[in-house]
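Chapter review: from sequence to fold.
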Amino acid sequence: MFIIVRHGKTFAAGEAPRRIGARTDLPLTDEGEQEARRLGDHFAELGWRFGKVLVSPLLRAQRTAAHILAAQGTAITAEEADFLAEIDHGPDENQTEDAVLARIGNAALRAWDHAAEPPPGWIVDAPARIGAWADLFARTPADRDAPVLLVTSNGAARFALLADPALSKAAEALPSLKLPTGGYGMIRRNADGRLEVPVWGQRP
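The token string follows.
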């Protein structure tokens, strides 16, 4: 079982959200820290004890993972994984949503949120991202008692849903490929060994 977490909030209430990616390493806000703690408490209440933890190199993901692991009560150490780092938004990096929409348009943003098709100018090696997720799913034993935790960003997480035909089919029924801040998705193998997505976009 794979639990894929998006980091907590990085913008304070009333602050205009911006497209932050690989080149903008913001810390969590106070609310983001609280979201991360809620995730940790939620997973502990469910009795999930992670056997492996992979985390993006970015500070916002590292802090989110730290709170989750603090609630585990074990000495497990997170491993950095470059494929979990956020994408580079090119000319839209650190720009407000209004400015991004003015440049790329609504259709391009919908294609990104529903099909992971990068808008013009964004730096996204989609085949490498998809390949890394597919490799993870292929080489990780299906151990329901020791789920794998992955803490990442919105742009990186969506490619998990394109790394397997069954996941891609399931993704078509989702309202969006996005995970909310402080939210998570679950990918697991069913009794037939096929990957499925019972949860995507849940917040504790």
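Two observations follow directly from the output. The beta strands are 2-6, 52-55, 79-80, 148-152, 184-189, 195-202. The longest strand covers residues 195-202.
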